[in-house]
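Hemerythrin domain-containing protein: structure, please.
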Amino acid sequence: MNMNAEHDSPATVETRLTHEAHRLATSLLVDASPRPSVPHQALARLRDFLVVNLRHHHDAQDEWLWPHIAAAAPEAKPALDDLTEQHKHLDIALTRLANIDLDSQGHRQALHEAAVAVRDSVHDHLTHEEPVLFPALREHITPWQWKKLSRRVIATTPPAAGHLMIGLLDEVAAPAELRSIFANMPPPVKARLPAIRTQAAADLQALRTGGP
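Here you go.
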């Protein structure tokens, strides 16, 4: 974690927390997938969440964030192009994960193997992305630009198991960081946060312990 995180820009803080949520979620699916006691429905929700959320996150970077950074700092474009190529390779692993038939015989082993590939790809990708992205966010993305992007991302995020992101953020973020993130949420979502958190906590407990 950045030692000066409490003084960091909202763009850097929110991106760091999103990445930590992705690390946690991909590792959780690897751990939970081979255990027979973990409910089928909880595995399916986490799998679907990862596929949808990671694709949406990378699309937002490739289509909106990278062009803004490159416009302000053209020298960053080769590194950003490399990150986009990594997104394409990760999407192959996500497609494999998405295509696992969770009703088929032996699906747990297939799910586990696909989850390992996604976890390893995500963790490796983030070790390459963060040293490029965090300085660029601090230096080249204004608070207004980031607020606009945050609202756009929230408005366009597909609803697949979205409660899990709230639960994961609860685990990786400090209270002040959560308040900053939730400030950009639509009022109807804010009103439902207690119920969303309860649902997320139940799913995360089932994934870790095999039941409520």
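Notes: The first helix runs from residue 10 to 32.
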